[in-house]
Amino acid sequence: MKKWSWLLTFLLTAILVGCSAEENTKDKQTSDQAEEVSNEPVSALKLIEDEKAGKYLADADGMALYYFAKDKPNTTNCKGECLENWPAFYAENLEVPEGFNKDDFSTITREDTGEKQTTYKGYPLYYFVKDTASGDVNGQGVKDVWFIVNSETTFAP
Fold first, then answer.
1. 108 contact partners, CB below 8 Å, separation of at least 6
2. What string of DSSP letters covers 46-105?
């Protein structure tokens, strides 16, 4: 009987070790999957200050973001040649600077191109092609319809 109990103990130990290793593998896979989800790219917006323009919202690279006064909430009126000069800004997972509410940022799908564009308080955000370096605000006030965005920005209805 002692011979069989030793064999039975050995078999039970082998089964338990095998199950434990399988659980550790499953736990590691679940942990790896959780890390993949949390490693989604985050686009951190910045608040930059310009001597003349004041504080303004910029993308993670320091490029100024603008709004177009002729846009309507959740609708863009900048198409064709306008869009060539004022490229649409889009970021999927935003981190916003202090003074901004993340809930004020959303996404629209442009009717003209079918591409996504980030909005602030419903208004589409853009870059300006003549801004070539971090800190440039060459689009501020262009034709009295293009403006930088800051936490005090209000939009006329």
1. 74, 75, 76, 116, 117, 119, 124
2. EEEEETTTEEEEE-TT--B-EEETT-BTTB----THHHHHSPBP--SSEEPPTT--GGGE
**Environment class of 121 (CB within 10 Å of its CB; exposed 0-12, middle 13-18, buried 19+):** middle
30 pLDDT more than 90:
no
Q: What is the pTM of this model?
A: 0.73
Q: Which residues partner with 108 through β-bridges?
A: 117
Structure tokens given for 129: 């092609």
- At 55-92, the pLDDT tens digits run 999 999 999 999 999 999 999 999 999 999 999 999 98
